[in-house]
Amino acid sequence: MRVPLLTLIRSRFDLRKKKEKSESTLTPTTPTSPTSATTTTSDDDDDNYRLKTGHASINSVVHSSSKSRTESAGLGKPKPQTATTTPRLLDLTVDNITPNTNLINSECSDPRLRYIMERLVTHLHDFARETRLSTSEWMIGLNFLVSCGQISSEVRQEFILLSDVLGLSLLVDSINHPKPPNSTEGSVLGPFHTHDAPVLENGASMTSDPEGIPMLALCTIKDTDGNPISGVKIDIWETDSSGNYDVQHSDRDEPSERCVMVSDDNGQFWFKGIKPVSYPIPNDGPVGKMLQLLGRHCWRPSHMHFMFEKPGWDHLITALYLRGDPYETSDAVFGVKESLIVDLKTVNDQMAQQYGMKEGDLLLEYDFVLVTEQQTQALRDSNAIKAMRDLGLTMKLVDHLPVPDVD
Question: Compositional bias (Low complexity) at which positions (predicted)?
Answer without folding.
Answer: 24-41, 57-67
